[in-house]
Description:
The structure holds two protein chains of two kinds.
Chain A: H1 10-13, H2 61-72, H3 96-101, H4 104-107, H5 119-136, E1 140-142, H6 148-165, E2 172-176, H7 182-189, E3 193-197, H8 207-213, E4 218-223, H9 236-245, E5 249-253, H10 266-269, E6 273-275, E7 296-298, E8 310-314, E9 323-327, H11 344-384, E10 400-403, H12 405-411, H13 415-424, E11 431-432, E12 441-444, H14 452-471, H15 473-477, H16 490-495
Parallel strand pairs in A: 2-3, 2-4, 4-5, 5-6
Antiparallel strand pairs in A: 1-7, 6-7, 8-9, 10-12, 11-12
Helix pairs in contact in A: 5-11, 6-7, 11-14
Chain B: H1 9-19, H2 49-61, E1 70-71, H3 84-90, H4 93-96, H5 108-125, E2 129-130, H6 137-152, E3 156-160, H7 165-178, E4 181-185, E5 187-188, E6 191-192, H8 194-200, E7 205-212, H9 222-231, E8 235-240, E9 258-262, E10 278-282, E11 295-299, E12 305-309, H10 316-319, H11 332-369, E13 374-376, E14 385-390, H12 394-403, E15 406-407, E16 410-411, E17 422-426, H13 433-455
Parallel strand pairs in B: 1-15, 3-4, 3-7, 7-8, 8-9
Antiparallel strand pairs in B: 2-10, 5-6, 9-10, 11-12, 13-14, 14-17, 16-17
Amino acid sequence: MSALDGGATPQQRERATTIFEKGAPGRRAFIAPELDVPQVDGLIPAGLRRAAPPRLPEATEPEIVRHYVNLSKRNFDLDSGFYPLGSCTMKHNPRLHERVAALPGHARLHPAQDPRRAQGALELMYELQGALAEIAGLPHVSLQPSAGSHGELAGVLLTRAYHADRGEQRTKVLTPDSAHGTNPATVTMAGYEVVKVALDAAGGVDVDDLRAKADESVACLMLTNPSTLGIFDPNIEEIAKIVHDVGATLYYDGANLNAVMGYSRPGDMGFDIVHFNLHKTFTQPHGGGGPGAGPIAVSDRIEPYLPRPQVVRREPANGGPPTYDLDEDRPKSIGKLRGFQGNYGVFVRTYAYIRSLGGEGLKDVSEVAVLNANYLLARLRERVGEHLPLAFGERCMHEFVLSGAPMKKELGIRTLDLAKRLLDHGMHPPTVYFPLVVDEALLVEPTETETRETLDLFVEAIAAIVEEAAADPDIARNAPYTTPVRRLDEAGAAKRPRVRETL
Amino acid sequence: MSGYTGVTQEDLEIMLGAIGVASIDELFDSIPAGVRLRRPIDLPPGLPEQAVYAELRRLAARNVSAEDEITFLGAGMYDHYVPSIVDMLMSRSEFLTPYTPYQPEISQGGLQVMFEYQTAISELTGLPVSNASVYEGPSAVGAAAYLAKLANRRPRVLVSRGVHPDSRATLQTLAVGYGTTVEEIALDDGVTDLDALREAMGDDVSAVILQQPNFLGAIEDVAAIADAAHEHGALAICAADPLTLGVLEAPGNQGADVCVGEGQTLGNRLDFGGPSFGFFAATDAHIRRMPGRIAGETTDVDGRRGFVLTLQTREQHIRREKATSNICTSQALNALGGVVYLSWLGRTGITELAELMLQRTHYARETLAALDGVSKLHDRPVVREFALRLEAPVDKVLDRCAAAGINAGYRLGRTYDEHPDGLLVAITEQRTRADIDRLADVLGEAVAAERATAQVPA
């Protein structure tokens, strides 16, 4: 099959124009309410008055709507197609969640409202805390962090406070090379030195290397389990012991929680601090890059340092119904990581999800996530295993990493080219070039909300691309052909950054 | 099987056969016995959609929202009108459900939205470079202090007491990790004490942070504060209320090196505090120190105009421990709401909206300060929020107003010990003159009633 030459797609033919290039002077969408109070001059001191208005667009509502609706059609999305982006858990976003989050009692509630008049919100947060504590196997939860990496920062700052309170000065945090980039970035922001822990041949933490590096200068070990290789570390109990024996904390990056719900809890694995990614495991829509939320669950010894306020429940002495409150009186708290209480709209969606599924439903999630990943792996191995072998181990949990190194050597196309050609097949590629420990990595996570038919279609698409490359590698090397734009000059964009419209 | 997973008996047989195992349980064999959960997850059983909906409605009904009362509560988030097109566009599948645009060829929608948003924020703030969002206002202040640390490695940060209490608290929390000390500069009659600032300045100060308007609603002299910072080579960081920039000079035109702020008022709901977004803009000098995603313009192989995430070597997924921030997921969907809202307001609209707030705020302050037992806490120029002093317990006055269907504002004593009798009142375009007059009646009565109670001999 030859490349799609001659004839750009309709989307490719229309030049990208921004909203600033639309509209015309004098057009408007917003009609200001009438000024119903006397007009008074001189309310703003001369030097502080805005001299020239910001050059925002001047467009009508239909112009704005048409512009953004057409823009939306230049996006691939999860509702439209398969999105096996490893590490991101692109599971279906139930629309019930949008409906309940939009209820005015939730959506129009002010964060500084008197807690006595926000009992529904506080009850929801309290119940959600309890549910997350049960899932994590750790009793104390803060919903405050706004994303996974925010939760990581909270966790490392909690660790710092814990050690400081015991009069200890620790300087290092350990993390494996397979870790998500947010882990080492967080360590630096929290004022610690990153020390890498090696992986063993099976892709787990090299226990001997850990033992050698774990000493009383180490504050914490940050891990995810299963790892970013999709493998459950069989040595987790020993790892926890080594870390705890030197008085350090064990931190769980909850990005891969989708694999183990109902089967194992991070608290039971020995972790002291856990963060959840509500936008991964708990269906908060990814929104093209957020919003999310990264609540944390911690053990008893870490509890005193949790951010404030904490949502608490009080049972009145007279036997009346419980009331909920925001407790600011936390003398050892690390303080605050953001304004108010956190991304409540995300909590509403997560709470709806947990109430919809129940305990059994959450276990079903992990079962099907792991089943789907293993099925997909088995079928891919059967069809393209020699070109795209599994990088580590024999089976996987909820995601797996293939290496495109043999494909590159034998067929002359890289993982990147495979990904770009997959776009022409109407699917989002898996994660590429992560984790760093695998050469030409392809990290695949189908999630539990895909059916067998979709997984089979993906296998066929990969097989077709590999077969095509064997005949003519140039096709994939120059893909994609059918998308709104083709390969973009990223190097040029970084060399001469143009990050806003010139007006 | 739930409504979201779909493994039939037939599917199961085929799939287990392909994998080569007899049961799903076998796939979890790698989990050691010592860490296995041997009981069901202890949560109530799952419910059908209609029951979950009923439960969420029950919880919603236990909240008093801006739908249920006329609210003058501000303190960092405000009850503005969110136009319908924002809801409609934010709920489109193509914007709601995709991930961060790592494959730009199929993400031009999201990337161009970021580029447009960055342009709008740059226009508002008067600074040339904006990122594609951070989480929200207070953590944006913390992130700005980190940029200053990366820029000059100095150990001290000075922050005005007029900066939002949550921003100051967040700064303190993060500064522990940065290795920075944070010192507060006092207010003098409602605005930052310039003498105290100059007194505290030194060559070891990394940044000076102020808020415009400040938490007490007062307009600050951004240029003077920026000058004081620059005299010693420190960065001037301004946290700004974005809609007030319709009538206030852009901080970038007054010497701010970095301008951040809370974006909730730009097309986003109150949502009991989130999700919203934080904006983050800076001078060109700092572009490579910026946190978070930045969309940049480029061309494709056929010469088409397109957009990509750019300067990614700053970011955690590339630079890891040397990244400018650990931020990954930010607030892309909320930033979409922001740019749609700003486009809807438009060039004249934002000025008209800000002017409307300015006039109604003035009217509200004069009207309320004329009530018995009510006076201005400060008389500085304000734009959309102001502070009063009540000669009656503020919490009790608020309760009386609430019973009359009015949320009269924020009790300043919650976060400012020195203002136990303070009330912060916020105005948006949704608060009409009639609403303000009603507030005056209700507040006046409430203060009078509380003063009468206090005068009754025990």
